[in-house]
């Protein structure tokens, strides 16, 4: 993110002005903070097994991400 800011700051200040550049980076920072607070779980002091369970329940489950054992069991029963 620092590289992006360093590379884009001067061109943005010339294009939209200094205040709008700082406003834009501020909005991006607030959105990033909200994302971290909502989507990143606290794992301090938890054993790895509990962290795996927590992340497994929060993960997106698309068809191509299913484990092979689940698809094999589904084929055998159905």
TrEMBL record:
Signal peptide: none
Listed Pfam families: Sugar_tr
Gene3D superfamilies: MFS general substrate transporter like domains (1.20.1250.20)
Membrane topology, from the record: Multi-pass membrane protein
UniProt keyword list: Membrane, Transmembrane, Transmembrane helix, Transport
GO-annotated cellular components: membrane
Compartment annotation: Membrane
Record domain Major facilitator superfamily (MFS) profile: where: 1-44
GO MF assignments: myo-inositol:proton symporter activity
Transmembrane segments: 20-40
Top-level taxon of origin: Eukaryota
PANTHER family referenced in this protein's UniProt entry, alphabetically: INOSITOL TRANSPORTER 2-RELATED, PROTON MYO-INOSITOL COTRANSPORTER
Protein's name in the database: Major facilitator superfamily (MFS) profile domain-containing protein
Organism in which the protein naturally occurs: Rubroshorea leprosula
Organism ancestry: Eukaryota, Viridiplantae, Streptophyta, Embryophyta, Tracheophyta
